[in-house]
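Something for you to look into today, if you have time. Could you write out one complete protein record for me, on any chain you like? The space below this message is yours for that.
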Amino acid sequence: MRRLRGLRFRLVVAFGLVAAVSAVTTGALTFREARTGVLQQSQDATIRQLRAQLNQHAAELALPPERSALRKFAEDTAATESQGSWRVLVTYGDLSGSSASGDPFTEVTPALREAVASSRATVFQRVRHDGRTSLVVGMSILFSTQRIPDSVETASGVRVFLVVPQTTEQAYVDALVTAAERAMVAALALAVVLALLAARGVLVPVRKLRLATRRVAEGRLDTRLAVNGSDELAELSHTFNETAAALETSVAELREMEARARRFAADVSHELRTPLAAMSAVTDVLDEDAARLDPDTATAVRLISTETVKLARLVDDLMEISRFDAGAAVLHLDEIDLAESIRRTLGSRGWTDTVETELPPPHAVRARVDPRRIDVVVANLVGNALKHGARPVTVRLGGDDTVAVIEVRDSGPGIPSDVLPHVFERFYKSDSARIRSEGSGLGLAITAENVRLHGGTVRAAGHPAGGAVFTVELPLRRAEPTEEYRP
């Protein structure tokens, strides 16, 4: 079906239709003119010959004639035609005589007889009888008084009807039809050949343009087309080259800007880690002595300590994102019990009594994963549910022989439909009025990157019963243990 909708097929059909219409029109006009010429020539020759014979023998016919005289006149007239194909009928009133005894002359219709009787002109028509075409000519014999100058010819009452088969003419017409059909077939064949050549001339550049566009879409921005000629296709190729060059320049600039931004974030994060470590050590000491300080000083100390922890978490997240962007993230795979891993994650953060779990028995779901990154995934999703959702928060683990499914659901208001496509974007905030938040705004983005490293997927949705639900699907690896895995 795709080929039937292609440009090649449409070009061939268009050329074929144009050639067919042209051939049919030309053939029809040529056939009509040739047929008219053949039949007209035959008709004129027959009428001239008949008139010549009547002028020669009419004086021998006495008026009023007898039946035998009419028959002899008809036989003499028919005998003048060398091939013997004429059939002549002569009438005078109720009397008639023919060149062929017993011939009913069915071609001579009453309408033709009436036309000859009412007109001094020669009357003729072509009739088709028993599958054969014949020319029927009818005329009246006139006489005049030769001694009187400018005498008026008067009808003698004798009428002659000639029936001539047009077998030869029909053979000519059939030959014309055959020739027209052959010419049409040849024209169609030529049109198809020309259409294929034209299609090739059009489709080859189009195909090259399609392949070049596909290469550009695959990231090969240095792709260019050879420009040949100065037609529209050449202009299209030239425009493509200009567009590809502009796109290559723009993408290179964007990549350079992105690389600089990544280096900046990584450098800043790295440079902040040392002073943050010192600040964290100082704030730990101050936290221990906060109880002995005056209330205002203690409040300030606790605020500094809290903000220092947030800043340290933000720096750690930025460092992690920088590793993802640089392609330096490494998986340290190990085969673990996912249910036990989830229990350890909740226990280490004090969420065991806060979060409900629906986990399978021990060793029911085992997978080759990076334990640290799976811990981060579960912790970020549960922490997000506790922070932005409402209790109860439930963690479920299921799956089959090929995939493990981790589901985290809260009982909050859910996620608006316009926010769902953006929940895994970095620093995205659904409420623009919310200037600051407790998190870094990178938690879900880091979660998505960790899941992607494992070849899995993560998605967010609203639960029909209310609240938000995050679903992680991890492929179960059955390969032999390895030290590292780099995606």
In short: The first strand starts at residue 87 and ends at 92. Residues 3-174 form a domain with the Beta-Lactamase fold (CATH 3.30.450).
